[in-house]
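Q: what sequence does this backbone want?
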């Protein structure tokens, strides 16, 4: 393969951000996914985007870029569906992570029992993850990328330490560089060529409720309830997974969330459940993103992480630049696959 072609496996928000930033740079780009864009963990995400004020995480430099990169993406992709509503949190949250919210009742007038103190992060936002992914796909296509949906990647085409493409249910797609942004599916694809990726599936539940519009103004986060509301009245509420194994258990969890929401906001007594689902997030063993080329394997680049929604815009730009130029980004240095876990 001498044309510099790139195949991105995974059309979640990380994969499509990478494809968008890679396309149009003189190298053929193909995106492969077994389903539709955003149909995996991306679609089941709460999609709160923010950044730490202070962080001692190895990936702090990358996380500090998150909001600026989405602001940039907004200028490039008109209609990017982000609500810059800010966030309010209290109860078990570190008060050093933002300024005091002041009068919480003025910020959330429908809140029935506002706290005396809370943290306000006015720069935070949330996005529609599926619509954002679809917009990134459209942008990648406009730049010349090819998108193959309904195409399952079954194995990496690998010979003598070099990845030469991807074997799929529709045949082999050759490439000079294969980028794996396949979430939890990255583990099996890498295992097939003897590359260990320390990632486990981390389940999280997302409940969708139907409520009157304008009950919730910002992202509201407490130990008991975390919610945000879309303009059409839909309320999104992420919930910790507690071992639910069937639909009955999931719907019981959703009922508890609905009851908490109805008790927390005036006008929410008629709230109904729309849906409840489990998203299987890829969680690296140390919680930090895994981004870069595995040592000893040519032609392969990994991009797998938790906080994928928050980091997608920044990782898309930085990782694409690394792949295209071969120059390493300082912000990605702590995220390499060969670090100690």
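A:
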């Amino acid at each position: 393969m001498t044309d510099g072609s790139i195949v991105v496996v995974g059309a979640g928000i990380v994969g499509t951000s990478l494809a968008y930033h890679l396309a149009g740079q003189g190298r053929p780009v193909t995106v492969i996914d077994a389903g539709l864009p955003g149909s995996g963990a991306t679609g089941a995400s709460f999609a709160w985007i923010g950044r730490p004020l202070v962080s001692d995480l190895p990936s702090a430099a990358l996380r500090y870029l998150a909001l600026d990169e989405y602001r940039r993406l907004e200028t490039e992709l008109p209609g990017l569906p982000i609500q810059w509503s800010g966030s309010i949190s209290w109860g078990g949250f570190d008060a050093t992570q933002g300024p005091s919210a002041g009068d919480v009742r003025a910020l959330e007038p429908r809140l029935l029992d506002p706290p005396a103190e809370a943290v306000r992060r006015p720069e935070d936002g949330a996005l529609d993850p599926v619509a954002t992914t679809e917009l990134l796909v459209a942008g990648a296509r406009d730049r010349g990328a090819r998108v193959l949906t309904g195409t399952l990647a079954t194995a990496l085409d690998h010979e003598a330490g070099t990845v030469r493409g991807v074997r799929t249910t529709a045949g082999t797609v050759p490439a000079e560089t294969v980028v794996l942004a396949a979430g939890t599916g990255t583990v099996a694809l890498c295992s097939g060529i003897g590359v260990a990726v320390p990632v486990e599936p981390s389940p999280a539940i997302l409940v969708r409720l139907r409520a009157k519009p304008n009950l919730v103004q910002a992202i509201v986060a407490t130990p008991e309830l975390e919610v945000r509301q879309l303009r059409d009245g839909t309320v999104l509420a992420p919930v910790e997974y507690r071992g639910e194994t069937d639909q009955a258990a999931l719907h019981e969890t959703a009922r508890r969330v609905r009851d908490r929401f109805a008790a927390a906001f005036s006008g929410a007594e008629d709230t109904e459940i729309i849906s409840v689902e489990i998203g299987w997030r890829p969680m690296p063993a140390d919680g930090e993103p895994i981004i870069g080329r595995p040592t000893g394997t040519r032609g392969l680049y990994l991009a797998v992480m938790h906080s994928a929604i928050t980091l997608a815009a920044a990782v898309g730009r930085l990782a694409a630049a690394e792949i295209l130029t071969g120059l390493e980004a300082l912000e990605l240095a702590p995220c390499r696959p060969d670090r100690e876990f």
